[in-house]
Amino acid sequence: METRKKVLIIDDDNRNIFALTAVLKSKGYQCLSAIGGEEGLQLMEEQKDIAVVLMDMMMPGMDGYEAIAKMSQDPELKSIPVIAVTAQAMLGDRERCLNAGAVGYVSKPINVDSLTDLLVKYI
């Protein structure tokens, strides 16, 4: 069976989506993107083969915390691992993201090796 290597990037900044997509595609991952929590949830409903979500935690509208909460209430979505991505690298942020349901945490600017190590665990 082929491993699912489809990554959904949810971020309200297109520059972050562009940079992450370029890096991940070079490592063999397929990337989808959404510019907000609502759009991300809709994509997850439509695309049943998403292996992991990279979730920006600070977005206008539905932020990452709210999106993760909605995923955890959905039987089909709650098994998809979420890696929190945030520019808020302050004390307690990592714990807050993990407590919200994220399986991992990376801060911006993203260390590609750290991100790749996390992805390998969940894909």
Write the layout of secondary structure elements.
Elements: E1 6-10, H1 14-26, E2 30-34, H2 37-46, E3 50-56, H3 64-72, E4 82-86, H4 93-100, E5 104-107, H5 112-122
Parallel strand pairs: 1-2, 1-3, 3-4, 4-5
Could you characterize the architecture of this molecule?
This protein is of the alpha/beta class and 123 residues long. It has five helices and five strands. Strands 2-1-3-4-5 form a five-stranded parallel sheet, sandwiched between helices. Helix 2 packs parallel to helix 3. It starts with 5 loop residues before the first strand and ends with a helix.
Q: Please report which band the strand proportion falls in: under 5%, 5-15%, 15-25%, 25-35%, 35-45% or over 45%.
A: 15-25%
Overall structural class, as computed from helix and strand content, comes to alpha/beta
Shape annotation: globular
Helicity range: 40-55%
Which residue ranges are poorly predicted, with pLDDT under 50 across at least 5 consecutive positions? none
Provide the residue-averaged pLDDT: 93
* Order of H and E elements: EHEHEHEHEH
**Strand order of the main beta sheet, please?**
2-1-3-4-5
How many beta-strand segments?
5
Largest sheet: 5 strands, parallel
Q: Radius of gyration from the CA trace? A: 13 Å
What's the helix count?
5
How far apart are the first and last residues' alpha carbons, in Å?
A: 13 Å
